[in-house]
Amino acid sequence: MPVDAEPNAPAASAGGILTIDLAALAENYRRLRDHVGPGVTCAAAVKADAYGLGAARVVPELHRAGCRTFFVAHLAEGAAIRPLLGADSTIFVLNGPMPGTEAAMRQAGLVPVLNSLEQIANWRALAHQTGTPLPAALQLDSGMSRFGLSDADVATLLSEDTPLAGLTPLLVMSHLACADEPAHPANRAQRTTFLRLRAQLPALPASLAASSGLFLGPDWHFDMVRPGAALYGINPTPGQPNPMLPVVRLQARIVQTRQIGPGTAVGYGAGFIADRPSRIATLGVGYGDGFPRAIGGHGHAILPERPDLRLPIVGRISMDCLAVDVTALGDTPLAPGTALDLIGPHHSLEDAAEAAGTIGYELLTGLGRRYHRIYRADASPQGDNR
Ligand SMILES: *Cc1c(COP(=O)(O)O)cnc(C)c1O
């Protein structure tokens, strides 16, 4: 059963309920760690509030599961989780320090990923000022043209007499653009570029793979992998069975139901018009909850007792509600408050994302603050609701 529900949004009044299975999260971490084996560090990407699931709950759970290396995108995200972790853990900040925030980065006990010559120079300047070497990761651009030192940058850096003086480099890293397409030639090409650039620098632990890269095979593991999505149940191997456990369930509760006749319109813009006598349920979740407006007319909901029936979302998504055609349920009683799954055991995150024309990553990180959140810590991910 649900444990420690958040106090100020009682389940009884909420329009939507977001259940996050911390036991499944921990199991996913262990699966990924076991997949790469004992010689490889399994870090965790917890940026964007742990992909929308709540870093304050996710980070301590991952630490309990054995994770000691965390990646966030911004200083503020790192500062928020630093107090949750002891000195045994390292928090890398992927975007590196914005100019002028180097001292704050150090003060917060965070390790920047240095992506450009400017970031390196500014971090070294702080080390020089304080008289202490400062830890950092170095990012190389292996072909994504997003973050990291290019070939030319590496040459410029190495033309200095003591290019890394003042730094304690902990890691050299890069990121794959096409890891979710195993046959894509960019994967090999990026790996080759990474090896070539890395060979010019002092020997350092290396990291290239995130969730999907981790499943490309041991050639991509190096010394550390940095999964995010897979921890949260997103399929890292699209097109193949999902090797991860689902972590998120999203339920929307019925506010009211009505019978309508043929020709009757539903929602803004009369976006749906019934072509037969229909039973419509209005659910208390809308785009104001981060449930994508683009899913209107495409997605479906499921009554857990009837997983065989896909109940179509009809008409446009409103800010605070959406409409579902529940005609297929016949006269099954649907009391106000009844919860239908928008994401659940019979309705994957990927399916919902696809119906909205997006990916699981965007759907998760967009899920708003308005849901009643339940963090399940039951020992078994095969608990009552799965
Ligand atoms: C977001 C991110 C990750 C995690 O990626 P997933 O695909 O979610 O596993 C790892 N490394 C970098 C540099 C990232 O930006």
Automatic annotation (TrEMBL):
Active-site residues annotated for this sequence: 47, 268
GO molecular function, one term: pyridoxal phosphate binding
Superkingdom of this protein's organism: Bacteria
Cofactor: pyridoxal 5'-phosphate
Cellular component, GO, one term: cytosol
Record GO biological process: D-alanine biosynthetic process
Record-annotated Alanine racemase C-terminal domain positions: 247-376
Reactions it catalyzes: L-alanine = D-alanine
Alphabetic keyword roster: Isomerase, Pyridoxal phosphate
Pfam families xref list: Ala_racemase_C, Ala_racemase_N
Enzyme class name: isomerase
Family matches, as HAMAP family: Ala_racemase
NCBIfam families (alphabetical): alr (TIGR00492)
Protein's name according to its UniProt entry: Alanine racemase
Source organism of the structure: Gluconacetobacter aggeris
